[in-house]
Design a protein that fits this description.
Blueprint lengths: L1 E3 L2 E6 L2 E6 L10 H15 L6 E6 L4 E3 L4 H10 L3 H17 L4 E6 L2 E3 L1 H8 L2 E4 L4 E3 L13 H4 L5 H9 L3 E2 H6 L5 E2 L5 H10 L5 H9 L9 H4 L1 H8 L4 H9 L7 H13 L2 H14 L4 H18 L2 H10 L14 H8 L8 H4 L3
Parallel strand pairs: 3-4, 4-6, 5-7, 6-8, 7-9, 8-11
Antiparallel strand pairs: 1-2, 2-3, 9-10
Helix pairs in contact: 1-3, 2-3, 2-16, 3-15, 6-11, 6-14, 15-17
Length: about 350
């Protein structure tokens, strides 16, 4: 067993284990952690002693609360391009995970947010517990859901739009209902499941699923499922203004409290982040995962300069005054998109432009 870069690496039987170990920061991913995951996968790819990989957490509170946004902020403020290197390295690692030739299991206990959500979605077999809470909360800091959310949220239709715009957390029951995870195992049984996987002489996908099936239980009913009709009603509109108008003018008294809460949330988010998040969800439905990821990468490289991310992090993380001064408009944003996006995406510029 070895520990470095806030990762604990071990091999138990034929199972390679990568444990996120930055518990003081809810395992927010640093560049070194991302590089460490990539390096370990590269080592295990052709190692006959490792038949499968498990990614889990040493934190009792979180699997992973996202990326290290303070690092991105500091890089931009220092005037260097390390924030772009962070995104590029992260996306390479996510691609390696998705295409890894051996089964990659992820066990999630606690918060699964932002970059942690994207990390989990890149794994092949996803196990969650009753303690898990999932969200893509990027609009709250003036950003947009990335790490593949343009693909995996857009497959959820209106629910994906709702999650992308509001950043609301969903439960493990909700995630199961939406097919974002595969299995529910009680938190108290995670150690037993890991021990069973470590003791198995063969760990191919069929055997892994057989082992997990011995520990699964039925979670409580999904609360989100009860609200799908309501979400579909309000978040099916093609324009942000129509969504907010629908929430503001709901006619059913039983739904007014929820609608008001969602409207209040949306009105706290910057317009640019909401507009682009909405358009990415709409466009992502028609794109492959690879092209969704490329769109996100193109936007990431210009967003810290053009978007509200820096101001959002300042207000919520650095100064903690919780009073971000969002941009009202950005007339240069459309021109920037036209310059930075590759030729294959030109047909989508009109729908993605900030208008």
């Amino acid at each position: 067993m070895s520990a470095e870069n806030n990762l604990v690496i071990s091999v138990q039987g034929v199972l390679g284990i990568i444990s996120l170990d930055r518990t003081s920061h809810l395992n927010a991913l640093t560049l070194q952690m991302i590089q460490g995951i990539q390096s370990q996968l590269d080592q295990w790819r052709h190692d006959p002693e490792v038949q499968a990989v498990l990614i889990n957490s040493n934190s009792p509170k979180a699997f992973c609360a996202g990326g290290d946004i303070r690092y991105l902020y500091d890089s931009y403020q220092a005037g260097n391009t390390q924030y772009q290197d962070f995104f590029a390295t992260e996306y390479t690692m996510l691609s390696t995970l998705r295409n890894f030739p051996k089964a990659v299991i992820v066990m999630m206990d606690g918060y699964v947010l932002g970059g942690g959500f994207g990390l989990a979605q890149a794994c092949h077999i996803k196990v969650t517990s009753e303690k898990s809470r999932f969200a893509m909360p990027e609009t709250a800091i003036g950003f947009f859901p990335d790490v593949g959310a343009t693909h995996f949220l857009s497959r959820l239709d209106e629910v994906g739009v709702y999650m992308a715009l509001t950043g609301e957390q969903i439960s493990s029951s909700d995630a199961l209902y939406l097919d974002l995870v595969d299995y529910h195992v009680p938190s108290e049984n995670f150690a037993k499941l890991e021990a069973a996987l470590s003791a198995a002489p063969i760990l191919n996908p069929v055997e892994i699923r057989k082992i997990i099936s011995a520990f699964i239980t039925h979670p409580v009913e999904s609360e989100l499922q009860k609200r799908v009709g309501l979400i579909n009603k309000h978040f099916s509109y093609p324009r942000l203004e129509e969504i907010e108008h629908s929430l503001a003018h709901t006619s059913d008294a039983r739904d007014q409290d929820w609608a008001k809460k969602m409207l209040d949330l949306l009105q706290q988010r910057p317009r640019m982040a909401k507009q682009v998040s909405l358009k990415l969800q709409q466009t992502g439905q028609n794109l492959s995962l690879e092209k969704c990821m490329q769109l996100e990468r193109d936007l990431q490289d210009i967003w810290l300069e053009q978007g509200d991310f820096i101001e959002g992090v300042r207000a919520l993380i650095i100064d903690k005054d919780k009073n971000p001064q969002w941009q009202i408009d950005n007339v240069n944003f459309e021109k920037t998109l036209e310059k930075c996006w590759p030729a294959w995406s030109k047909q989508y510029i009109d729908s993605l432009c900030y208008k």
